[in-house]
Design goal:
Blueprint lengths: L1 H16 L2 E5 L9 E3 L2 E5 L5 E12 L9 E2 L9 E4 L2 E4 L6 E7 L2 E9 L4 E11 L2 E10 L37 E8 L2 E6 L2 E7 L3 H8 L15 E5 L6 E13 L27 E5 L1 H14 L1
Antiparallel strand pairs: 1-17, 2-3, 3-4, 4-16, 5-8, 6-7, 7-16, 8-15, 9-12, 9-16, 10-11, 10-15, 12-13, 13-14
Helix pairs in contact: 1-2
Protein backbone atom coordinates (compact mmCIF):
# COMPACT_ATOMS: atom_id res chain seq x y z
CA UNK A 1 0.00 0.00 0.00
CA UNK A 2 2.87 2.36 0.80
CA UNK A 3 4.33 1.77 -2.66
CA UNK A 4 0.92 2.43 -4.26
CA UNK A 5 0.49 5.72 -2.41
CA UNK A 6 4.02 6.82 -3.30
CA UNK A 7 3.43 6.10 -6.99
CA UNK A 8 0.15 7.99 -6.90
CA UNK A 9 1.80 11.04 -5.35
CA UNK A 10 4.55 11.02 -7.98
CA UNK A 11 2.06 10.83 -10.85
CA UNK A 12 -0.10 13.59 -9.37
CA UNK A 13 2.85 15.91 -8.74
CA UNK A 14 4.17 15.42 -12.28
CA UNK A 15 0.70 16.09 -13.72
CA UNK A 16 0.32 19.22 -11.61
CA UNK A 17 3.70 20.63 -12.58
CA UNK A 18 2.96 19.99 -16.25
CA UNK A 19 -0.27 22.01 -16.05
CA UNK A 20 -2.42 18.94 -16.71
CA UNK A 21 -6.03 19.13 -15.59
CA UNK A 22 -7.65 15.74 -15.27
CA UNK A 23 -11.27 14.64 -15.50
CA UNK A 24 -12.31 11.03 -15.55
CA UNK A 25 -15.08 8.54 -15.57
CA UNK A 26 -14.74 5.84 -12.95
CA UNK A 27 -15.60 2.81 -15.04
CA UNK A 28 -17.28 0.45 -14.57
CA UNK A 29 -19.50 2.09 -11.94
CA UNK A 30 -19.62 0.56 -8.49
CA UNK A 31 -22.99 -0.82 -7.33
CA UNK A 32 -25.38 1.92 -6.25
CA UNK A 33 -26.96 2.32 -2.84
CA UNK A 34 -30.28 0.54 -2.35
CA UNK A 35 -33.30 1.65 -0.36
CA UNK A 36 -35.68 -0.54 1.64
CA UNK A 37 -37.86 0.02 4.70
CA UNK A 38 -36.50 3.51 5.34
CA UNK A 39 -32.84 2.45 5.15
CA UNK A 40 -30.22 3.15 2.48
CA UNK A 41 -27.60 0.40 2.15
CA UNK A 42 -24.19 1.26 0.71
CA UNK A 43 -22.32 -1.56 -1.06
CA UNK A 44 -18.67 -2.02 -1.91
CA UNK A 45 -17.59 -2.79 -5.48
CA UNK A 46 -18.55 -6.45 -5.01
CA UNK A 47 -22.03 -5.60 -3.77
CA UNK A 48 -21.41 -6.33 -0.08
CA UNK A 49 -23.23 -3.90 2.19
CA UNK A 50 -20.66 -2.01 4.23
CA UNK A 51 -22.73 0.86 5.65
CA UNK A 52 -26.37 1.72 6.22
CA UNK A 53 -28.21 5.00 6.77
CA UNK A 54 -31.62 5.69 8.27
CA UNK A 55 -33.87 8.06 6.36
CA UNK A 56 -35.07 11.12 8.21
CA UNK A 57 -37.99 13.39 7.39
CA UNK A 58 -38.07 14.95 3.91
CA UNK A 59 -38.28 18.73 3.57
CA UNK A 60 -39.88 20.39 0.54
CA UNK A 61 -37.58 23.37 0.12
CA UNK A 62 -39.87 25.11 -2.38
CA UNK A 63 -42.68 25.66 0.07
CA UNK A 64 -43.44 29.20 1.19
CA UNK A 65 -42.66 28.11 4.75
CA UNK A 66 -39.08 27.33 3.68
CA UNK A 67 -38.47 30.66 1.92
CA UNK A 68 -36.79 32.14 4.99
CA UNK A 69 -34.27 29.29 5.01
CA UNK A 70 -32.84 30.40 1.65
CA UNK A 71 -30.44 33.32 2.07
CA UNK A 72 -27.32 34.96 0.76
CA UNK A 73 -23.93 33.83 2.03
CA UNK A 74 -24.22 36.06 5.11
CA UNK A 75 -27.59 34.68 6.13
CA UNK A 76 -29.60 37.66 4.90
CA UNK A 77 -32.48 37.88 2.45
CA UNK A 78 -31.23 37.32 -1.10
CA UNK A 79 -32.69 39.82 -3.63
CA UNK A 80 -31.14 38.00 -6.59
CA UNK A 81 -33.58 35.07 -6.26
CA UNK A 82 -37.30 34.56 -5.74
CA UNK A 83 -39.43 31.67 -4.51
CA UNK A 84 -42.92 31.82 -5.93
CA UNK A 85 -45.57 29.21 -6.69
CA UNK A 86 -43.22 26.39 -5.79
CA UNK A 87 -40.40 27.56 -8.08
CA UNK A 88 -36.99 28.94 -7.08
CA UNK A 89 -35.81 31.34 -9.78
CA UNK A 90 -32.65 33.34 -10.32
CA UNK A 91 -33.58 36.95 -11.07
CA UNK A 92 -30.46 39.08 -11.30
CA UNK A 93 -27.13 39.92 -9.71
CA UNK A 94 -24.43 37.42 -8.85
CA UNK A 95 -25.23 36.17 -5.35
CA UNK A 96 -25.55 32.42 -4.91
CA UNK A 97 -28.54 31.13 -2.93
CA UNK A 98 -27.64 29.29 0.29
CA UNK A 99 -29.74 26.93 2.37
CA UNK A 100 -29.37 27.56 6.08
CA UNK A 101 -27.44 24.91 7.98
CA UNK A 102 -24.75 22.40 7.08
CA UNK A 103 -25.33 18.89 5.83
CA UNK A 104 -23.24 15.74 5.70
CA UNK A 105 -25.26 12.64 4.73
CA UNK A 106 -28.36 13.30 2.67
CA UNK A 107 -30.40 12.80 -0.48
CA UNK A 108 -31.25 15.97 -2.42
CA UNK A 109 -33.81 15.66 -5.22
CA UNK A 110 -34.57 18.57 -7.52
CA UNK A 111 -35.84 19.54 -10.94
CA UNK A 112 -34.09 22.26 -12.89
CA UNK A 113 -34.36 24.21 -16.11
CA UNK A 114 -31.65 26.44 -17.51
CA UNK A 115 -32.00 29.20 -20.11
CA UNK A 116 -30.47 29.07 -23.58
CA UNK A 117 -26.67 28.85 -23.26
CA UNK A 118 -27.18 29.04 -19.49
CA UNK A 119 -24.99 27.81 -16.68
CA UNK A 120 -25.64 26.98 -13.04
CA UNK A 121 -25.03 24.24 -10.50
CA UNK A 122 -25.90 22.80 -7.12
CA UNK A 123 -23.17 22.99 -4.49
CA UNK A 124 -22.93 20.47 -1.66
CA UNK A 125 -20.37 19.99 1.10
CA UNK A 126 -19.45 23.56 0.24
CA UNK A 127 -18.51 26.85 1.84
CA UNK A 128 -18.60 30.48 0.76
CA UNK A 129 -16.09 33.04 -0.42
CA UNK A 130 -17.86 36.37 -0.32
CA UNK A 131 -21.24 35.98 -2.03
CA UNK A 132 -20.24 32.82 -3.91
CA UNK A 133 -20.31 29.15 -3.00
CA UNK A 134 -17.14 27.11 -3.37
CA UNK A 135 -16.66 23.38 -3.11
CA UNK A 136 -18.24 20.28 -4.62
CA UNK A 137 -20.73 20.86 -7.40
CA UNK A 138 -23.38 19.10 -9.45
CA UNK A 139 -22.91 20.77 -12.83
CA UNK A 140 -25.86 22.34 -14.69
CA UNK A 141 -25.37 23.85 -18.14
CA UNK A 142 -26.98 24.05 -21.58
CA UNK A 143 -24.99 21.17 -23.09
CA UNK A 144 -26.07 22.06 -26.61
CA UNK A 145 -25.32 25.77 -26.66
CA UNK A 146 -22.82 26.52 -23.93
CA UNK A 147 -20.52 29.39 -24.86
CA UNK A 148 -17.57 28.04 -22.85
CA UNK A 149 -15.87 24.64 -22.72
CA UNK A 150 -17.93 23.24 -25.64
CA UNK A 151 -15.84 20.09 -25.96
CA UNK A 152 -14.85 19.28 -22.39
CA UNK A 153 -16.90 16.35 -21.02
CA UNK A 154 -16.34 17.28 -17.38
CA UNK A 155 -18.65 20.26 -17.85
CA UNK A 156 -21.70 18.31 -19.08
CA UNK A 157 -24.82 18.57 -16.95
CA UNK A 158 -24.81 15.89 -14.27
CA UNK A 159 -21.03 15.85 -13.99
CA UNK A 160 -19.17 16.21 -10.71
CA UNK A 161 -17.77 19.56 -11.76
CA UNK A 162 -14.08 19.51 -12.70
CA UNK A 163 -13.55 15.98 -11.34
CA UNK A 164 -15.78 13.28 -12.84
CA UNK A 165 -17.72 13.71 -16.06
CA UNK A 166 -21.08 12.01 -16.33
CA UNK A 167 -21.56 8.59 -17.84
CA UNK A 168 -22.51 8.83 -21.50
CA UNK A 169 -25.77 6.94 -20.96
CA UNK A 170 -27.03 9.65 -18.58
CA UNK A 171 -27.36 12.32 -21.29
CA UNK A 172 -28.52 14.28 -23.12
CA UNK A 173 -30.50 16.76 -21.07
CA UNK A 174 -33.97 17.95 -21.95
CA UNK A 175 -33.14 21.17 -23.78
CA UNK A 176 -34.98 24.24 -22.41
CA UNK A 177 -37.17 21.95 -20.30
CA UNK A 178 -37.14 20.63 -16.77
CA UNK A 179 -34.67 17.89 -15.91
CA UNK A 180 -34.46 15.78 -12.76
CA UNK A 181 -31.35 15.79 -10.61
CA UNK A 182 -30.35 13.84 -7.52
CA UNK A 183 -27.36 14.11 -5.18
CA UNK A 184 -26.76 11.28 -2.72
CA UNK A 185 -23.98 11.45 -0.12
CA UNK A 186 -23.46 8.67 2.42
CA UNK A 187 -20.04 8.92 4.00
CA UNK A 188 -17.57 8.70 1.12
CA UNK A 189 -20.17 7.22 -1.22
CA UNK A 190 -21.42 9.81 -3.74
CA UNK A 191 -24.01 9.32 -6.48
CA UNK A 192 -25.20 11.95 -8.96
CA UNK A 193 -28.28 11.19 -11.07
CA UNK A 194 -29.73 12.89 -14.15
CA UNK A 195 -33.27 12.15 -15.32
CA UNK A 196 -33.35 8.90 -13.33
CA UNK A 197 -30.09 7.68 -14.88
CA UNK A 198 -26.84 7.26 -12.98
CA UNK A 199 -24.48 10.07 -13.98
CA UNK A 200 -21.60 9.72 -11.50
CA UNK A 201 -20.87 7.10 -8.83
CA UNK A 202 -17.64 7.57 -6.88
CA UNK A 203 -15.92 6.84 -3.61
CA UNK A 204 -14.32 9.89 -2.01
CA UNK A 205 -10.78 9.50 -0.72
CA UNK A 206 -9.95 6.67 -3.17
CA UNK A 207 -6.59 6.98 -4.97
CA UNK A 208 -8.32 8.12 -8.15
CA UNK A 209 -10.35 10.72 -6.23
CA UNK A 210 -7.22 12.04 -4.53
CA UNK A 211 -5.36 12.29 -7.82
CA UNK A 212 -8.16 14.25 -9.50
CA UNK A 213 -8.55 16.55 -6.50
CA UNK A 214 -4.80 17.20 -6.47
CA UNK A 215 -4.90 18.21 -10.15
CA UNK A 216 -8.11 20.23 -9.93
CA UNK A 217 -8.42 24.01 -9.99
CA UNK A 218 -9.32 23.82 -6.28
CA UNK A 219 -6.17 22.03 -5.15
CA UNK A 220 -4.96 24.98 -3.06
CA UNK A 221 -8.04 24.84 -0.82
CA UNK A 222 -7.53 21.99 1.64
CA UNK A 223 -11.27 21.71 2.25
CA UNK A 224 -11.91 20.55 -1.30
CA UNK A 225 -12.04 16.79 -1.71
CA UNK A 226 -13.07 16.04 1.86
CA UNK A 227 -16.75 15.35 2.56
CA UNK A 228 -16.84 16.66 6.11
CA UNK A 229 -20.18 18.42 5.82
CA UNK A 230 -21.01 21.86 4.50
CA UNK A 231 -23.50 24.11 2.83
CA UNK A 232 -26.00 23.42 0.05
CA UNK A 233 -26.26 26.28 -2.46
CA UNK A 234 -27.68 27.10 -5.89
CA UNK A 235 -25.27 28.83 -8.24
CA UNK A 236 -25.95 32.24 -9.76
CA UNK A 237 -23.91 32.17 -12.97
CA UNK A 238 -25.43 35.21 -14.70
CA UNK A 239 -28.11 33.16 -16.47
CA UNK A 240 -31.73 32.44 -15.70
CA UNK A 241 -32.29 29.10 -14.00
CA UNK A 242 -35.33 27.58 -12.35
CA UNK A 243 -35.62 24.90 -9.65
CA UNK A 244 -38.72 23.12 -8.45
CA UNK A 245 -39.56 20.06 -6.32
CA UNK A 246 -36.35 20.59 -4.32
CA UNK A 247 -36.57 18.01 -1.55
CA UNK A 248 -33.95 17.27 1.09
CA UNK A 249 -33.79 14.10 3.16
CA UNK A 250 -31.15 14.03 5.89
CA UNK A 251 -29.68 10.61 6.68
CA UNK A 252 -28.12 9.22 9.84
CA UNK A 253 -25.61 6.37 9.87
CA UNK A 254 -26.60 3.16 11.62
CA UNK A 255 -24.13 1.97 14.24
CA UNK A 256 -24.66 -1.68 13.35
CA UNK A 257 -22.59 -1.34 10.17
CA UNK A 258 -19.58 0.75 11.08
CA UNK A 259 -17.00 -0.83 8.76
CA UNK A 260 -15.38 1.69 6.44
CA UNK A 261 -16.06 1.47 2.72
CA UNK A 262 -13.79 -1.01 1.01
CA UNK A 263 -11.17 0.66 -1.17
CA UNK A 264 -11.39 -0.86 -4.68
CA UNK A 265 -8.09 0.71 -5.76
CA UNK A 266 -5.48 -1.28 -3.84
CA UNK A 267 -2.31 -2.98 -4.98
CA UNK A 268 1.09 -1.84 -6.09
CA UNK A 269 2.02 0.84 -8.58
CA UNK A 270 -1.10 3.02 -8.89
CA UNK A 271 -0.99 5.19 -12.00
CA UNK A 272 -3.81 7.71 -12.41
CA UNK A 273 -3.90 7.05 -16.14
CA UNK A 274 -4.13 3.29 -15.76
CA UNK A 275 -6.61 2.97 -12.92
CA UNK A 276 -9.38 2.82 -15.50
CA UNK A 277 -9.65 1.70 -19.07
CA UNK A 278 -7.47 3.89 -21.34
CA UNK A 279 -10.44 4.61 -23.61
CA UNK A 280 -12.19 6.29 -20.72
CA UNK A 281 -9.35 8.71 -19.99
CA UNK A 282 -9.83 12.43 -20.47
CA UNK A 283 -7.00 14.93 -20.10
CA UNK A 284 -6.82 18.56 -21.13
CA UNK A 285 -4.37 21.36 -20.70
CA UNK A 286 -5.43 23.39 -17.66
CA UNK A 287 -5.02 26.63 -19.57
CA UNK A 288 -7.68 25.55 -22.05
CA UNK A 289 -10.34 26.50 -19.51
CA UNK A 290 -8.96 30.01 -19.28
CA UNK A 291 -8.58 30.40 -23.04
CA UNK A 292 -12.16 29.28 -23.62
CA UNK A 293 -13.37 31.73 -20.98
CA UNK A 294 -11.44 34.64 -22.50
CA UNK A 295 -12.72 33.84 -25.99
CA UNK A 296 -16.27 33.73 -24.67
CA UNK A 297 -15.85 37.02 -22.84
CA UNK A 298 -14.46 38.66 -25.96
CA UNK A 299 -17.43 37.52 -28.01
CA UNK A 300 -20.09 38.49 -25.47
CA UNK A 301 -18.39 41.58 -24.10
Amino acid sequence: MKQANTSLIVICVVSSLSGLAIAQQNWPPSPVATFKDGVYSVPDEKGKVVAAYDQGATRDLCLDAEAGNWTDAQGNSNPDWEIQNGVIRRLDGNKDLFLKGEYTDFVLDFEFKVSFAGNSGVFFHSWNEGDKARGHEYQIIDDLNRPIHPKLPRYFTGSFYSLFHRYDAAGPIIHLGYNKGRIMVMGNHVELWLNDKLAVNVKAESPLWKCLVHNSRHQEDKRFGHLNGGKIALQNHDYEVWFRNVKLTVLSKKDALSASLHNPFTGGGVDCRSILQPTKWRATDASEDEREGRRSAAKTG
